[in-house]
Amino acid sequence: MWWSLLFVWGCATWAVAQSTEGLYSLVKRRLPNHVDHFQFSINSSLVKNRGHDQFTVQTLPNRTVLVEGSSISALSSG
Fold first, then answer.
1. Which of the chain's ends, N or C, has fewer CB atoms near its CB within 10 Å?
2. 72 or 18, which is more confident?
3. Which domain covers residue 24, as residue numbers?
4. pTM for this predicted structure
């Protein structure tokens, strides 16, 4: 039982990493000179409002654009 829980956790972690890698790949194709200036993060504290995804976009002090969202879909919208 313990091994199956570890496997599920590992798969979930891998799926999130894979999904954000797809967003980085999109930025790399569209803005190849600026791919290092973006960060994507799933933020589970962002509450879905009436079933809608939420996202925020902000500029960090190091001039990196941080896109946080409640899901991968929200990140791609941001």
1. N
2. 72
3. 2-77
4. 0.69
